[in-house]
């Protein structure tokens, strides 16, 4: 299985990068590949649980649903602990199944799986 | 014979507002000149790089360079849904096929879905992204 790392540092809704990256991750895992999604900086907001139906409210993709779909297909998603701390987000605020990791762990994961790295 | 390696490049972000498209063009052309295969995916606002008849007076000529890298053999794919959203193609079914015809797009640009992009990523020996975070 081929690896792909999606490094997402933008918040959803105000900018298209978060859901654009999650679309790529979903396409990648849905055909049997391994994806690692790294949420850092404002990207951690993409995994907040309890998002409203954004497609209905503002006609934009719901990143919580995208995150759940990727996890459901076997993708791995990690969130940067320091970015979460700075934004007062706890692990309980995020979709269950996401690993909260240190920047050093992110560095190691990217070194291990980052042959295909896409930053958004 | 040594097999040519393939560089995959994803560009996101519109031309001219930033230098990302300039850098993408320069990297793609340099890689081609060095003997690499180059495959490109225009994503999100980056699809504006495919517009025909761009006439920048003081900026880097993105359209002209894109035409040149296509002529040099790069495969340039554009996100279908992003291009439909921005009015470049209709994408509607015509005789059982999606209509990708357009007078607004540089010749040689091909349209594909996000799954086509996944295939492109798989073919690439190395992938870089430009214009993201």
Describe this structure in words.
The complex is a heterodimer of chains A (120) and B (133). In chain A, 44% of the residues are buried. The radius of gyration of chain A is 13 Å and the shape is globular. Helices cover 38% and strands 19% of the residues of chain A. Chain A has a single domain (1-65, 78-87, 101-110), classed as Hypothetical Protein Ychn, Chain: A. Chain A is an alpha/beta fold and 120 residues long. Chain B is of the alpha/beta class and 133 residues long. The longest helix of chain B is centred in the first third of the chain and has 14 residues, at 20-33. The chains are: A alpha/beta (120), B alpha/beta (133). Chain A binds chain B through residues 2, 4, 7-10, 16-17, 20-21, 23-24, 26-28, 30-31, 33, 41, 43, 115-120, and chain B through 8, 10, 12, 43-45, 113-115, 117-118, 121-122, 124, 126-129, 132-133.
Question: What's a quick, concise take on this entry?
Answer:
The complex is a heterodimer of chains A (about 120) and B (about 130). Chain A is of the alpha/beta class. Chain A is about 40% helix and about 20% strand.
CATH architectural label of chain B = 3-Layer(aba) Sandwich
Poorly predicted runs of 5 or more residues of chain A? none
Average pLDDT over all residues of chain B: 94
Tally of extended strands of chain A?
5
CATH class of chain A: Alpha Beta
Q: Descriptors for this entry?
A:
heterodimer, A: 120 residues, alpha/beta, Hypothetical Protein Ychn, Chain: A, five-stranded parallel β-sheet, 5 helices, B: 133 residues, two-stranded antiparallel sheet, 7 strands, 30% helix
How would the blueprint of this fold be written?
The complex is a heterodimer of chains A (120) and B (133).
Chain A: E1 3-8, H1 17-30, E2 34-39, H2 54-58, H3 63-72, E3 76-80, H4 81-86, E4 99-101, H5 103-113, E5 117-119
Parallel strand pairs in A: 1-2, 1-5, 2-3, 3-4
Helix pairs in contact in A: 1-3
Chain B: E1 6-12, H1 20-33, E2 37-43, H2 62-71, E3 75-79, H3 80-85, E4 93-94, E5 97-98, E6 110-112, H4 114-123, E7 126-130
Parallel strand pairs in B: 1-2, 1-7, 2-3, 3-6
Antiparallel strand pairs in B: 4-5
Helix pairs in contact in B: 1-2
């Amino acid at each position: 299985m081929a690896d792909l790392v999606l490094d997402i540092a933008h918040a959803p809704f105000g900018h298209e990068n978060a859901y654009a990256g999650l679309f790529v991750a979903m396409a990648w895992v849905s055909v049997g590949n391994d994806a690692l999604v790294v949420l850092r900086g404002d990207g951690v907001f993409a995994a907040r649980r309890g998002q409203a139906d954004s497609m209905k409210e503002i006609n934009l993709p719901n990143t919580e649903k995208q995150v759940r779909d990727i996890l459901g297909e076997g993708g791995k998603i990690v969130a940067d602990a320091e970015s979460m701390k700075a934004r007062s987000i706890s692990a309980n605020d995020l979709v269950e199944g996401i690993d909260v990791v240190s920047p050093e762990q992110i560095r190691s994961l990217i070194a291990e799986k980052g042959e295909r790295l896409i930053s958004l | 014979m040594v097999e040519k390696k393939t560089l995959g490049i994803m560009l996101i972000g519109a031309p001219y507002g930033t230098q990302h498209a300039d850098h993408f063009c320069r990297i793609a052309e340099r890689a081609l000149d060095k003997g690499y295969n180059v495959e490109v995916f225009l994503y999100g606002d980056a699809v504006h790089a495919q517009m025909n008849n761009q006439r920048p007076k003081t900026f880097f000529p993105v359209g002209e360079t894109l035409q040149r890298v296509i002529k040099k053999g790069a495969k340039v794919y554009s996100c279908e849904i992003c291009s439909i959203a921005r009015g470049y193609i209709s994408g509607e079914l015509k005789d059982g096929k999606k209509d990708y015809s357009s007078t607004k797009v540089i010749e040689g640009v091909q349209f594909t879905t996000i799954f086509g992009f996944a295939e492109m990523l798989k073919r690439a020996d190395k992938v870089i992204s430009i214009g993201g975070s």
